[in-house]
Write the structure tokens for this entry.
Amino acid sequence: MGQVFLIGDINMEEGSQMRGKYVADISSIREAQARINSFIHKTPVLSSESLNAISGRRLFFKCECFQKGGAFKFRGACNAVFSLDNDQAAKGVVTHSSGNHAAALSLAAKLRGIPAYIVIPKGAPKCKVENVMRYGGQVIWSEATMQSRESVASKVVQETGAVLVHPYNDGRIISGQGTLSLELLEQAPDIDTLIVPISGGGLVSGVALAAKSINPAIRVLAAEPRGANDAAQSKAAGRIITLPETNTIADGLRAFLGDFTWPIVRDLVDDIITVDDEEIIEAMKLCHGVLKVVVEPSGAIGLAAVLSDSFKKNPAWKNCNNIGIILSGGNVDLGGLWDSFRK
């Protein structure tokens, strides 16, 4: 069991204002949709009779791997960047991230013509660091610990006056991610269940807020690696639990819930399904072999969850017949594969 933290008074971060009970709501999500609509891709929804047969359900795959930057993160980053007034924006934005948020914020800042200072921990996936550089983000290295990441980011804020945009614990980010729900439920209105990857909780928070506002009866399930199951433990305990370490192939799902995302996850996420890395790898193979889509481990976890015994054999979910699965990203480091062809 990890360390336990009780949530007390919420610390309001810059740009995050409480909208009723939570830091975002359906109004802020619709505002985000109007704000970012001209910048983002409306990503397709794919289906497969083969995967329907394997799962025994109708599956609708929301392909955020085709989003700009290769992941859903561009929605939230774009909303955050274009929410800034001109004086704020002129000084740029800063974040600490080892992955898709870093690239997404870099791209959003490039579109607005402002600086992006990206603190990246040593050892981050090479393909994701290259994405940051491709989009013009200024890479600043930190040690791998969260303490180092936050300390370096804080120093950059002090030196530049740039606005900190947290990867998930920010109302602007949550609202931007919620636009995914608005699109998906318009594209596939028969969906009765959503399965969403969970890490820091920004994506599932936005998705749940929007989906349950549109259809209060819809089920929202989160999918999490067993080696990073802090959200499942938090749901069970009724309070945020963090882990001393995580161990999973899904590098995008190693963060812990924040004080803005936790209340939404606590109240609106119906359950959390945990899966092994082996199940994630099999789901990646199916995405590639059947859907013909390259999906990173974090993005394949929703399919892994729907195919898992813990989901299929749970009588609580026997009536989940039309399931929306978020393929959240497609940034896979294929260097090893390309190298193998040269041998």
